[in-house]
Structure formats: C-alpha cells, structure tokens
Write a structure and sequence with these properties.
Length: 390
C-alpha cells in the first residue's frame, strides 16, 4: 500500500472508530485516569465542543475576510471548503494537545484533509437507511454530550468560543456517524449476537465492574490555577492552617457540603457541595485515591496532600465490585453491556478489514484538489501516517 493511501486509511479509520456512539457514551461519565477533579472537564467530549481560545482575529478568520472561503477539493457530489479544513485542523490540534502531543504542520494538514475526503467518499455511498441510522446515532451522542455539560446552552457557549454553532455541529456529527455506518455495513463489521455472547463468556474482565467510591471533597490549592506554579511558601503555610481549621469544623459536626461551598477552591465541584462522580481505583491521583478507598461509612479523612493542594474527603457511599449481565446498563449511562461490546467488536473488525477497503475507496475517480499548494503537499509519499489514528 502506498504511504498516501496509508494516511487516508488512518484518517478514515480514526473517523470510523471514534464514531461508535455507544462506546463513547458508555465512558463519558468516567473520570480521566490519575486526574483529580480540579476544574478539569471530561476528555471524552468531541474537540468541537471543547473549550477553545478566543477566535477573534484568528489567522483563518482574517484570510476568510480578505479572500472568502474557497473550495479546495471537488468530488462527485461534494465540495470541501477551506473553512472545513481549518476546523478539522483546529480539532486535531486540540485533541493532540489534550494528549500532550504536537503534530508537525504538514502532517496535520494531510491528516485533516484526508479525513475530510474519505468522510465525504463514504457519505456519498450512504443509503437512506444509512442516513437514518447515522442521524439517530449522532443525536444520541449529542444528547450524551449535552447531559455531560449540563445543558445545551453550555454546549452552545463552548461551540461559539470555537467559532461553531450547535446546528453546524449537529450536521457534522450526522455526516460523521453516517460515514461510519456505511463503512460498517459495507464491511459487514457488526458482530452477531452469538459473537457478542462468546466474547462475554470468554473474557470475564469485560463484564467485571470494579469497586467504586462516591465522595465529597474540599480543596485548597497550593498551586496557581493558571500557571500550575507552586504558591509562595507563606501562602502554602496559610492554606495548611486554614485546611486544618476546616477539618476541625467538619469533625465537630459542621455540614460538609456547606463547608465545601464556602471554602473549596475546586470550582467544578464546590457549588455541588464538593461532590464528585463515583470513581474506581486508579482514576484519581494516588494520594487522593488511597485516602478515598480507605474510608468507611460517612467517615471524614485527615488532610490529604496532592500536587494540587490540600484535600479533605468525606465518603458518601461505596459500590462493591460486581459482574454485569449483557442486559445490564453501564454506570451513569443508558448503554447496555451488550451494546458496548458490540461497538468494541465492531472496532476490532474494522481494524482488520478496513485497510483494503479504504485503499480501494481512495482510488475513487473524480476527486480533485484545487488548491495548488495542497495538491503538491498531498502528492508527497514520504510523510508519516496520521498522527492521531491510534
């Protein structure tokens, strides 16, 4: 397979694998590994809906104002505009940054344009049934994102900051989901019920739900929230004295939730009385994790020190480890284990079957790159595969 086709496959497969809505929805309420909630949002929200910097006077906006929004690719039944490429590049860049990675500029452009082209080629093959299923899955996924953010208004604010609209995001999600549906149908990648049952029977870990704890916490930061730099020693000493005093109040019978609302510097939880979603071992930073899982009943911890600052933790509840049936719903989700495993097995089949299919699809006639610089860039064969396909 030529390197160009490998890149197209990587981009297209990434679209397909990240377009399995039940798999994403099933994990949307899970806290990131080794992250304690200190104003951090979920990592499972699409880049389009993630907070973005102010878009005022962004280079692409200035260029659009001066030169319009030119069509850069034409195909049978579709066009791709410069603004679409810019949007996907921004999303990929944000996603890479969230994983602590950077993508060279040329690779970023190739990956973004390849994903757009392949997405369109797949969408052109969609039947009415594919489009109906794509719309259903897109709206299910969007509903999950809205639930995660709390309201549609909050999602709209985040999209606006990224220069997008809710309706525009809706259309993009439908097209992306529909493209994934087409690939799954054409490759017959959806597993049968018998295959799902066999996987369930053969893989006990896939159906085991680890022990979870549900806690409140109060946090006093010992780092600057903007720069993550440590506070001056005098301020840290003052915070330690304050957290010791808050602990005395909590153990003397003061309402823990009220104390969190008054004192906690975790802006994402203080208004909710410091309450965190239930979590399993390993999902929080080590000192917080160890303290939370050592508590019993409604016990209040000693002062816990993490890289973020000083915490006090109150246990609200504990859910023992248990085995899920295929018909059981996953925690904080409307997704059954069977549906989740179906998407997981579909992803595995796509990894196996898609390369040859995408190579053939990439040779479809009638796709023309109109921008000379992009055409020259895309003709190069020595670039690495898409940086975010894994």
């Amino acid at each position: 397979m030529k390197m160009k086709n490998k890149m197209i496959f990587s981009a297209a497969l990434a679209v397909a694998l990240t377009s399995l809505p039940r798999a994403q929805a099933a994990t949307s309420g899970v806290a990131p590994t080794n992250v304690v909630a200190v104003g951090l949002s979920s990592t499972n929200v699409p880049a389009a809906a993630a907070p973005a910097a102010d878009t005022t006077n962004k280079p692409e906006d200035v260029m659009a104002a001066l030169f319009g929004d030119p069509v850069i690719v034409k195909g049978n039944g579709f066009e791709i505009k410069q603004s679409q490429l810019d949007t996907v590049m921004d999303a990929l860049k944000s996603r890479a940054a969230s994983m602590g990675r950077t993508i060279p500029s040329e690779d970023l452009t190739k990956t973004a344009l390849n994903s757009l082209i392949v997405n369109q080629l797949l969408f052109q093959k969609a039947s009415d049934a594919d489009k109906a299923q794509g719309k259903k899955e897109a709206e299910q996924y969007m509903a999950q994102v809205v639930k995660q953010f709390g309201s549609q208004a909050v999602v709209e604010e985040q999209l606006k900051a990224a220069g997008k609209t809710f309706d525009g995001w809706h259309d993009e999600m439908i097209q992306q989901r529909t493209a994934a549906v087409v690939m799954v149908r054409e490759l017959n990648a959806a597993p049968t019920e018998a295959e799902i049952q066999k996987f369930y029977d053969d893989n006990t870990n896939a159906s085991e739900l680890p022990e979870q704890v549900h806690v409140r916490h109060i946090l006093l930061l010992t780092e600057d929230p903007a720069t993550q730099a440590p506070l001056p020693d005098a301020q840290i000493q003052a915070k330690k004295k304050q957290i010791d005093d808050i602990l005395k109040q909590a153990r003397a019978g003061a309402d823990f939730a009220a104390l969190a609302k008054q004192y906690s510097e975790d802006t994402t939880t203080k208004d909710n009385g410091g309450e965190l979603p239930p979590f399993t071992h390993g999902q929080m930073v080590a000192p917080f994790d160890a303290a939370a899982f050592s508590l019993t009943n409604n016990q209040i911890s000693d002062v816990v020190t993490s890289q973020f600052g000083y915490h006090i933790i109150q246990l609200l509840g504990r859910t023992p480890a248990r085995k899920l049936a295929l018909t059981d719903k996953l925690p904080d989700s409307e997704v059954t284990l069977a549906d989740y495993l179906k998407d997981r097995l579909t992803g595995q089949k796509l990894q196996e079957l898609a390369p040859a299919y995408i190579e053939k699809l990439s040779q479809s006639p009638g796709v023309e790159i109109l921008d000379p610089a992009l055409k020259a860039l895309m003709s190069e064969t020595n670039a690495p595969a898409a940086a975010l396909a894994n």
